[in-house]
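quick q for whoever's on today - can somebody do inverse folding on this one?? i tried earlier but teh output was garbage lol. tokens:
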């Protein structure tokens, strides 16, 4: 019998609220969590806004040693893991630890820890030769992103495969896809899968300022993220994490677990075109969607909702609109589409896992999150983007897509439990 991966637990740390329910409330209400940056002084930058997480590691239950040892991104991942495992009701201590795997995604790893330490070691950049004696004991861990996956594995005492997936902005989707593959091939019975990024630092802002990818709408941060709107002018940086508990669907049913959704299809492609540019025809994303549909054995007419990448850049929104038309045909004009980045910004590698969490909750609650701030639709973006207000909608199959710098294109299909 073919094994299928089921989502039985969800943990979220996101702008607007820590925890799965606070996250869903923000989406369902169409509220935005974008504001002026408070984690550092952004005055010198073109874009001075972001979607920050109001995160207190002590209140979240982390120990002083964990707080000292772990970068903010790793802290997010561990807190999400705890919530997801509790939510799943899966007694991991009773499981064979060699059958528990970890698959975590991150685009930029321990960016905040690295920048903070460089500032100290270089005396705020005044010394070309840094003095390593000023570094924290765990500085090496900041240099190696895989330590994030290690922290999660330690948290759940997993002794099965553990991996850090880094494919830019599709890292979160790809990490879940890797976890699904481990379930399907029988390598693991339980996979802790998701992604985390905490990129809100001066170096990240400087990089995106240089290519003018982020919105300069500093006077109105709450409305700066405007996917598919004619007035959109770039994405808004965010941070956060989401972690899922994946199990074999049949085994989850046998133990009486609540199943949010099954991952029924997955596909990815590369455009081999440009580091940041996208072809207008959306061909590679469309092919990733087709691969996922073939794996799920469904037709375009079976797709009931599309969670768009929807970053809010001119080229991305046009590119994926074309991809939906190319892969779904006439169904693209009928199915609701939305982008939650309008509310929680773009948390780089983490966003794919956060969006899958949103899709699983949308399936369970039969509500499509809205695209906030969509007031004047771009004529080239002519699909049903669910503007401003959430919509009750019958859904059995949900498509979530991601597009990343470097040409990564990923599509995942979630289905209601059979």
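ok took a stab at it. sequence:
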């Amino acid at each position: 019998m073919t094994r299928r991966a089921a989502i039985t637990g969800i943990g979220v740390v996101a702008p607007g609220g820590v925890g799965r329910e606070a996250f869903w409330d923000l989406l369902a209400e169409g509220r935005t969590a974008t504001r002026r940056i408070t984690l550092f002084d952004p005055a010198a930058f073109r874009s001075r806004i972001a979607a920050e997480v109001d995160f207190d590691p002590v209140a979240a239950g982390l120990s002083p040693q964990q707080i000292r040892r772990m970068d903010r991104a790793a802290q997010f991942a561990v807190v999400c893991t705890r919530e997801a495992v509790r939510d799943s009701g899966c007694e991991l201590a009773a499981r064979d630890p060699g059958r528990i795997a970890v698959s975590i995604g991150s685009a930029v790893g321990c960016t905040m820890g690295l920048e903070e330490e460089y500032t100290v070691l270089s005396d705020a950049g005044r010394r070309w030769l840094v003095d390593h004696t000023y570094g924290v004991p765990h500085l090496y861990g900041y240099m190696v992103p895989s330590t994030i996956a290690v922290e999660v594995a330690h948290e759940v005492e997993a002794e099965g495969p553990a991996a850090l997936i880094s494919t830019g902005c599709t890292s979160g989707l790809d990490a879940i896809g890797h976890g699904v593959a481990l379930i399907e091939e029988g390598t693991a019975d339980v996979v802790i899968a998701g992604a985390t990024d905490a990129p809100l630092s001066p170096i990240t802002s400087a990089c995106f300022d240089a290519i003018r990818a982020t919105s300069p709408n500093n006077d109105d941060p709450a409305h700066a993220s405007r996917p598919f709107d004619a007035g959109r002018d770039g994405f808004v940086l965010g941070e956060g994490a989401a972690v899922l508990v994946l199990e074999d669907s049949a085994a989850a049913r046998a133990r009486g677990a609540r199943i949010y959704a099954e991952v029924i299809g997955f596909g990815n492609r590369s455009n081999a075109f440009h580091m940041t540019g996208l072809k207008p025809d959306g061909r590679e994303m469309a092919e990733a969607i087709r691969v996922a549909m073939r794996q799920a054995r469904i037709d375009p007419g079976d797709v009931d909702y599309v969670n768009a990448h929807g970053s809010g850049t001119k080229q991305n929104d046009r590119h994926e609109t074309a991809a939906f038309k190319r892969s779904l045909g006439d169904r693209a004009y009928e199915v609701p589409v939305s982008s939650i980045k309008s509310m929680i910004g773009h948390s780089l590698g983490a966003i794919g896992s956060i969006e899958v969490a949103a899709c699983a909750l949308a399936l369970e609650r039969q509500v499509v999150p809205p695209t906030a701030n969509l007031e004047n639709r771009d004529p080239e973006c002519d699909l049903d983007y669910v503007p401003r207000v959430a919509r009750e909608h019958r859904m059995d199959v949900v498509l979530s897509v991601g597009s990343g710098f470097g040409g990564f294109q990923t599509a995942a299909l979630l289905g209601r439990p059979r």
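fwiw Residues 266-415 form a domain with the Peroxisomal Thiolase; Chain A, domain 1 fold (CATH 3.40.47.10). also The first strand starts at residue 5 and ends at 14. so keep that in mind when u check it
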